[in-house]
Amino acid sequence: MHNLLSNDEEYEVSVSCKYFDPQECCKYIDSVPHHLSYLHLNCQGLSAKWDKLQLFLSSMNEFDFIGLSEAYHHKSDRRLHVPGYHPIMSKLRDGTNSRGGVALLVKDSFDCNIRSDLSIFIPHVMESIVVECKLDRQKYIIAIVYRPNSPPHANVDCFTLHLLELLDLLDQQNCRCTVMGDMNIDLVKSPFDVNISDYVDNIYAR
Q1: CB 80 within 8 A of CB 74
Q2: CA dihedral of residues 87, 92, 94, 95 (deg, nearest 10)
Q3: The model's pTM
Q4: What's the per-residue H, E or C state across the chain?
Q5: Rounded-to-integer distance, Cα 106 and Cα 85, Å
Q6: How many whole angstroms separate alpha carbon 189 and alpha carbon 127?
Q7: Starting from the edge strand earliest in sequence, which strands make up the sheet with 89-91, in order?
Q8: CA distances from 103 to 41, 53, 137 (A)
Q9: Are 197 and 191 in contact (CB under 8 A)?
Q10: pLDDT tens per residue across all 206 residues of the chain
């Protein structure tokens, strides 16, 4: 058990973590029947890391959903296609040299479309893309979230407010919703940082 102390209250949270190499991960995924599979990576530039990303994905099972944060600007790169997946869906900052941004790859067995009405994208504060997917009359919503951690915009409290706004919107969708992302928040500091503590409290309260 791992204890998170916040506001003089003690939260007991069961944490089970294990490191998998790609081969072990594939075996584990194959052992779980009738599941949807998700993967999230901070790629720090799709175009710059494309060859490494392809090599990594070739060593893994095919995931249903692959979320990517820090996608950077990549719209003009024609190499960026993964067989068996829809074209990359992304929300990016303005400017051809911009960083940050989020993206999602969805297997082509799903029908999918970007939900711009749900995608909260505030550059340098909270960047997200929300995609609605359908398979066999079942609807799924996938959200990719990235919190940049570069000053002067790196405000955990502001990020938490927008994340809760997103979660409230997702709660209204009446379907299975999955959030993946890179929040850039050090949870170990929760007992000593009120903004991180508030983030943890709000997440566990959902």
Answers
A1: yes
A2: -70
A3: 0.86
A4: CEEEEECCEEEEECCCCCCCCHHHHHHHHHHCCCCCCEEEEECCCCCCCHHHHHHHHHCCCCCCEEEEECCCCCCCCCCCCCCCECCCEEECCCCCCCCCCEEEEEECCCEEEECCCCCCEECCCEEEEEEEEEECCEEEEEEEEECCCCCCCCCHHHHHHHHHHHHHHHHCCCCEEEEEEECCCCHHHCCCCHHHHHHHHHHHCC
A5: 5
A6: 23
A7: 38-42, 65-69, 102-106, 89-91
A8: 10, 14, 24
A9: yes
A10: 233 334 444 545 566 777 888 888 888 888 887 789 999 999 999 989 999 998 888 888 789 999 999 999 887 778 888 899 999 999 999 876 778 999 999 999 999 999 999 999 999 999 999 999 999 989 999 999 999 998 777 889 999 999 999 999 999 999 999 999 999 999 889 899 999 999 999 988 87
Identify whether the C-beta of residue 135 lies closer than 8 Å to the C-beta of residue 107.
Answer: no
Q: Enter the tokens of residue 57.
A: 């994905």
